C-alpha cells in the first residue's frame, strides 16, 4: 500500500518504534527528572496522578512526542525504524495538527490502550490519533517511480 508515493507503516513497525520511544522517555525521566527531584528533596513516590513526579513525567512524555514530531516529523523510535509522520496531503504536519494528534489522540489511545490496534485494520494504517488529525505514518524513503525507457 502507498500514500502519495510513500509506503505506509504498519502496526508492528509502529509498535516497535513506540517501545523504543518509551525507553527514551524512561531514560530521560530517570537521568534528568529523578535526580533533580532528589536534589530538591521532593518525594518521588507517586501517591496520586497529581503528584509532582507524575505531572512532570506526563509533561516529558507529551513534550517529547510533540516536539520531536514537529521538528523532525519523527521521534527517535521512528528514526530507528525509518518512519515518519506526514499529513494526508504528504506534507510536514503543522503545529495545530501535531498538538491535536499527540495530545488529544495519544491521551485517548493511552487511556484505552487497545485502540492502538486500530492501525492494523484501517486502509491507511492510521491509529485513532492519526484519524483525528488527518495524518499517516509512512516509511521515510519514497517509492521509486518506474519510467519506461523510450
Descriptive notes:
With 150 residues, the chain is α+β, with helices and mostly antiparallel strands. The protein has one domain. 53% of the residues lie in helices and 12% in strands. The protein is built from five helices and four strands, in the order ββαααβααβ. The protein has helices at 11-39, 52-72, 76-81, 95-111, 128-133; strands spanning 2-3, 6-8, 83-87, 135-142. Strands 1-2-4-3 form a four-stranded antiparallel sheet. A hairpin with a 2-residue loop joins strand 1 (2-3) and strand 2. Helix 1 (11-39) packs across helix 2 and helix 2 crosses helix 4. The longest helix has 29 residues, at 11-39. The model has no long low-confidence stretch (mean pLDDT 87).
Structural domain tally: 1
Give the SSE order as H and E letters: EEHHHEHHE
Helix content range of the residues, please?
40-55%
Most strands sheet:
4 strands, antiparallel
Count of individual helical segments: 5
Distance between the termini: 28 Å
Mean pLDDT: 87
Amino acid at each position: 500500500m502507498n500514500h502519495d508515493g510513500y509506503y505506509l507503516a504498519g502496526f508492528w513497525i509502529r509498535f516497535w518504534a513506540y517501545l523504543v520511544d518509551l525507553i527514551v522517555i524512561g531514560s530521560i525521566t530517570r537521568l534528568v527528572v529523578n535526580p533533580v527531584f532528589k536534589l530538591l528533596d521532593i518525594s518521588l513516590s507517586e501517591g496520586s496522578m497529581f503528584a509532582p513526579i507524575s505531572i512532570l513525567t506526563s509533561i516529558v512524555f507529551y513534550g517529547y512526542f510533540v516536539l520531536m514530531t514537529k521538528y523532525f516529523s519523527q521521534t527517535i523510535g521512528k528514526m530507528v525504524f525509518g518512519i515518519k509522520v506526514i499529513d494526508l496531503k504528504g506534507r510536514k504536519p503543522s503545529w495545530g495538527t501535531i498538538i491535536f494528534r499527540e495530545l488529544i489522540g495519544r491521551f485517548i489511545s493511552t487511556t484505552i490502550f487497545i485502540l492502538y490496534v486500530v492501525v492494523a485494520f484501517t486502509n491507511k494504517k492510521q491509529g485513532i490519533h492519526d484519524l483525528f488529525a488527518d495524518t499517516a505514518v509512512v516509511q521515510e524513503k519514497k517509492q521509486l517511480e518506474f519510467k519506461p525507457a523510450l
